[in-house]
Amino acid sequence: MATGQTADLEAALSRVIRLADEHATALDSPMRCMAASAWVGGGAPAFSKALNEQRTVMQRAFQEAATQIAARLRQLGGQAPRVPSISTSVSVMTAARTGFSGMDIAAMEGLVASLQKAGQELPEAGHRLSAELSALCVPASSGKQIAGAGEWAQGQVGDLRRRLSVIQQEHDSGLTTKAMAGFGLFGGYAPDPGGVDKLTAAAGNGDAAALKALVALQNTGKDATLANRLNAWWHQLGKPAQERLMNQSPQLIGTLNGLPTTARDQANRNYLRGEKIWLGSELARLRALPSSDEVRKAIGEAEAKMRQLASVERSLAQGGRNGLPPAYLMQVELGGLGKTVISFGDPDKADRIVAYVPDTGTTLEKFDGDVQRASDMWAQANFLAPGTKVASIAWLGYAAPQWGNAGPAHTPGTLDDALAGAPALASFADGLHAAHRAASDARFTVLGHSYGSTVTGVAAQMRPKSFADQLIFVGSPGVVAMHAKALGVDSVWVGEAPNDPVGDIGSFGPLQPVTPDAQGVVKELAKDIWKGFVKGEGPFGADPSRSEFGAKRFYVPDSGDSIASFAGHSSYWGDNERGWDRRSISLRNIGYLINGQYDELVPFPESPDNPAPPRPTAPPSLAAEPKSAEEPTFHQIPSPRPAGG
């Protein structure tokens, strides 16, 4: 054997090992950034997997090249040293939870910078390795693999820098939302079974059909990631494109969950102004026509829309007055029973968010009283925790069942409207999570009243562990569950006035249990409801106020009205005919729950023989309490009660 050959192999092996020492850890730093920053949702897990795969392939290529040279050296009779392990492990110390939620932009900048460095160094290292192997007549595939890993890293840099630039413009605090962290940066790696990427691309170019398809997909509630995707898409559009879409398709943009509340409000108000002008001219045109059944019907429909529009305007007018924050119009749909979502305070920036889901009989035309309930909850929560940012939402995003001649499928005695409305509520909750700015202690509560609690119960089971932080049920006939654990929300509270007969409907008997999976729950509930009804069991599940259900109860006093009057069913917000009823124990407890002030709750009476004491003029803790400067001062202007009671 020629001594020169072995000497060349020994020198080459030394150079390859040194090359591996210098570059085999090139993708370790990006891996640490990903692991330590705990990216959530979207395509982040897939991105981490792809990064790790490239890192593994690159390190194995260095290992294989060194092993091949050592094997050739031994074949020629030389003394090959033991090839060291070139594989490295990335260990990350799990940090305690901090105020950061979503993504640390500084860490992201480090990730992009380390990817760029790897993208510059690894191709050169791969070419050097290929040259070494070719000179020794050893297969050079290892060098190509290393160069390929570097080219992959470099390919990520441009797109990630562009996306990071968008985030930095929107979030100058150094933190961003989970939606932008998960989808804004790594959305290209996320599974997309619904074809959302194609729809958003078309929608961004002004395709109204694509926008309608996104709204239709949203209404099914099947894709729990849709709101996050839409949030990221919207931020990446840029201001000119956003303004163009809000002018071209205001109602569609205003309906999309996950978009910023301020954008939805602007779009929906644009739509409302346009509809008011159009309806005025359309009514003038119709009234000038010769009378006929068709004309009279068209006039009636247009006049009904005008009344709905006026109701929305009256509700919005409450915002910014008497101590209330601005009102935001998050959805509006004229015609039929009508739909709208109105928030007092911006939920994207709030520390405490509560969404109120109304009862049977609710319509847009007479929604003023329900909106007042939302404003009352804001006033109470704000008063009990001054300085806390509160957002209180009146959510009429479903067609509530109606009394009278509404048809057999739309009466309060069936689950049809709850099953139809729950997907919309689940999607709305997705949107609140997606659009919320990073915060460590934000608390999201959904409060369902009567049939609204039934809708809430179904929606919660469609999003187990991700729907809300807390549920509050008042006057509930049942939430389509046999136990609170089935709802997938850790904190479940129930309030029931002693003279509220609706709250006892769930005690008629059990409903067949269901499996709360996101796509199958509605079908299973619909299948079981008739079976339970035939057996004489309660149509909406177990009574949430009973101890067996497993929810926590809060005190609601007897309103003093007879059970037959059903007035107790509307007593949870106190006597709010003339504004916020600060004397209401029930409303006060609701405020404590919204804020998480559980230790402050007004307790049940100590004597079991007297569970419903005479209604006081004020709770004892408030009787001598001076008027706070933080308390809104409401004018004594009559406001109608909600149609649903």
From TrEMBL:
InterPro entries in the record, alphabetically? AB_hydrolase_fold, DUF1023
Look up keyword Hydrolase and say if it applies: yes
Name the domain of life: Bacteria
Q: For the DUF1023 domain, which residue ranges apply?
A: 339-508
| SUPFAM superfamilies, alphabetized | alpha/beta-Hydrolases (SSF53474)
Please provide the record's keywords in A-Z order. Hydrolase
Q: Where is this region: Disordered?
A: 601-645
Biased composition of type Pro residues is found at 605-619
Q: GO MF annotations for this entry?
A: hydrolase activity
For this entry, the protein name equals Alpha/beta hydrolase
Native source species: Sphaerisporangium rhizosphaerae
Q: What lineage does the source organism belong to?
A: Bacteria, Bacillati, Actinomycetota, Actinomycetes, Streptosporangiales
